[in-house]
């Protein structure tokens, strides 16, 4: 019997992760027959079938799930160890990579950046914006250390994704001072008034739609804007009424041009900000500091 080694374990891990022999073979740069032979040797060693093959599809048996979870923990730790040792070998300073959802106000990201630079002035900071699915994928492979998002990201427990609620912030209807002077109180005052919406399927978009339907009002939608800063600027310019994050309004450059409208509705809308991380065997010291100390107090 050929005893297994870490090559066998890694080949099995890649096949199980890709759920495909052909994709795994391409990823490993070996032929599919050679990969199949390696997996067969690995299964023979354990005397268990670890993979079920149905045509081109691959699924894990009960024993396969057990081996895969252990393999994943081993190779995740190895990747973290390699990252840490590379920094020591090449004397690379502290580094942190952060992803920011487009639905998170810019002022929140700015405050986080200020906190990081105050904690470590010499840090190498990478900041990117992408789809939340892409950013979580990058979190899984250590291309990101932390993601700022506006909702708790659902994921299978074995992925070890952790959602840390940073803040629950009231959303407020705002208008320019000129519009606010002639405006009646909410919610009925929205009838026939110009309204600036976020682009669907943003969570705020759905919250506004629920608010409109709950109060049976019919505002006039004049714009649908994905960029939060541009939407706030249009509100300040007097183009319409917008539902804005109250923390962002209080810290916005245009705050002197914005008025918060009185809302007598019981249908309150809030915005949530989450710090999304992945559990690591070797915790990132800056991420740990952020989770323990970073807050959004004005």
CATH topology label of the largest domain: D-Maltodextrin-Binding Protein, domain 2
Residues in β-strands, percent: 15-25%
Domain count: the total is 3
Instruction: Briefly note the structural class of the backbone.
Output: alpha/beta
Instruction: Please provide the ordered H/E string of secondary-structure elements.
Output: HHHEEHEHEHEEHEHEHEHEEH
Largest sheet: 9 strands, mixed
Terminal residue distance: 66 Å
Mean pLDDT: 88
The Cα radius of gyration reads 25 Å
**Which CATH architecture of the largest domain?**
3-Layer(aba) Sandwich
- Coarse shape: elongated
CATH class of the largest domain: Alpha Beta
Give the proportion of residues in helices: 40-55%
Helical stretch count? 11
Structure description:
This protein has three domains: 6-75, Arc Repressor Mutant, subunit A (Orthogonal Bundle); 89-166 and 273-293, Periplasmic binding protein-like II (D-Maltodextrin-Binding Protein, domain 2, 3-Layer(aba) Sandwich); 168-271, D-Maltodextrin-Binding Protein, domain 2 (3-Layer(aba) Sandwich), CATH 3.40.190. It is 43% helix and 23% strand. It has helices at residues 6-18, 21-28, 32-46, 62-89, 106-119, 132-140, 177-181, 203-215, 228-236, 246-250, 285-293, and strands at residues 51-54, 57-60, 95-100, 124-129, 146-149, 161-176, 194-198, 220-225, 241-245, 258-260, 270-278. The strands form two sheets. Strands 3, 4, 5, 6, 7, 8, 9, 10 and 11 form a nine-stranded mixed beta sheet that branches. Helix 1 crosses helix 3 (32-46) and helix 1 (6-18) packs across helix 4 (62-89). It starts with 5 loop residues before the first helix and ends in a 5-residue tail after the last helix.
């Amino acid at each position: 019997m050929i005893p297994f080694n870490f090559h066998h374990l890694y080949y099995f891990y890649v096949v199980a992760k890709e759920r495909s022999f052909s994709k795994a073979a391409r990823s490993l740069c070996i032929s599919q027959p050679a990969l199949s032979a390696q997996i067969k040797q690995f299964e023979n060693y354990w005397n268990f079938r670890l993979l079920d093959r149905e045509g081109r599809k691959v699924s894990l048996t009960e024993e396969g799930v057990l081996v895969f979870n252990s393999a994943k923990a081993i190779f995740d730790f190895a990747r973290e160890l390699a990252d840490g040792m590379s920094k020591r070998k090449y004397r690379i300073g502290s580094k942190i990579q952060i992803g920011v959802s487009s639905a998170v106000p810019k002022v929140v990201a700015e405050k986080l950046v200020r906190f990081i630079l105050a904690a470590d002035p010499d840090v190498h900071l990478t900041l990117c914006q992408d789809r939340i699915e892409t950013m979580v994928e990058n979190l899984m492979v250590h291309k990101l250390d932390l993601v700022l998002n506006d909702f708790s990201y659902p994921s299978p427990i074995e992925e070890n994704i952790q959602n840390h609620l940073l803040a629950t912030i009231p959303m407020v209807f705002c208008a320019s001072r000129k519009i606010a002077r002639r405006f009646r109180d909410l919610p009925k005052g929205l009838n026939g008034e110009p309204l600036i919406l976020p682009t669907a399927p943003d969570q705020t978009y759905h919250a506004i739609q629920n608010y409109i339907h709950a109060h049976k009002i019919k505002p006039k939608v004049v714009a649908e804007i994905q960029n939060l800063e541009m939407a706030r600027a249009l509100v300040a310019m007097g183009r319409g009424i917008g539902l804005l994050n109250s923390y962002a309004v209080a810290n916005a450059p245009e705050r002197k041009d914005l008025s918060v409208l009185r809302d007598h509705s019981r249908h309150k809308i809030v915005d949530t900000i989450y710090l999304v991380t992945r559990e690591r065997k070797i915790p990132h010291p800056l991420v740990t500091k952020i989770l323990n100390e970073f807050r959004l107090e004005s």
